[in-house]
Amino acid sequence: MTLAKEIPTSLNGNLPNFSTEAAPVVSEEEMRQAVRTLLLGLGENPDREGLKDTPKRVVKALKFLTSGYHQSLDELLNGAVFHENTDEMVLVRDIDIFSSCEHHILPILGRAHVAYIPDGKVIGLSKVARICEMYGRRLQVQERLTAQIADALQGLLKPKGVAVVVEASHMCMVMRGVQKVGSWTSTSAVRGVFSEDAKTRQEFMSLIRHTPNFS
């Protein structure tokens, strides 16, 4: 097994900007063999009909669920940053979050609410959801995920402020451990005016608690 070059540390790098270690290069066959070993360790027969293709399926699923490691903000945005003379809050709420806990590799399921106050530049609305998706599709802790979304928008747009709230249920708490079904974790990250001005921050919190009526 060889070692890759040092993990990029910039905001636009493919991998998280908090790591300075070298990433091992592992073949797909090695990954499948690792899953097979796990099955053996669990007392299963990896050669029986129902499990014969499980290593292949697990590797494919894990690669999809962590595909955010192989995306960059530049590729994701594809030029969808526009000059606009507005300084009113832009809010995209109830963005589905599907991530994986880095401690147990179990699902984190929830939603994100993301707001920013432009300072001459806006971003395509779908790209806000794409940013959440990119960072979600990595092994995560919720606190880091929330901060990464906020810092990405702050770095891309240089807005007057950014606010992010993530609400999620962690299967490592629901399915194992304390087994508290129905428990939710809420995290927030505020930058700029949202951090400095309580009134602006309260407006954001009020908007994400309000249920829209489109009838």
From TrEMBL:
Signal peptide as annotated in the record: none
Protein's UniProt keywords contain rRNA-binding: no
Enzyme Commission (EC) number: 3.5.4.16
HAMAP family recorded: FolE
Pfam families: GTP_cyclohydroI (PF01227)
Organism: Limnospira platensis NIES-46
Entry keyword set: GTP-binding, Hydrolase, Metal-binding, Nucleotide-binding, One-carbon metabolism, Zinc
InterPro entries reported in the protein's UniProt record: GTP-CH-I_C/QueF, GTP-CH-I_N, GTP_CycHdrlase_I, GTP_CycHdrlase_I_CS, GTP_CycHdrlase_I_dom
Broadest EC class assigned to this enzyme: hydrolase
Domain GTP cyclohydrolase I as annotated: residue spans: 32-209
Quaternary context: Homopolymer.
Catalytic activity: GTP + H2O = 7,8-dihydroneopterin 3'-triphosphate + formate + H(+)
Pathway: Cofactor biosynthesis; 7,8-dihydroneopterin triphosphate biosynthesis; 7,8-dihydroneopterin triphosphate from GTP: step 1/1
Name of the protein: GTP cyclohydrolase 1
Protein family membership: Belongs to the GTP cyclohydrolase I family.
Binding annotation for Zn(2+): 101, 104, 172
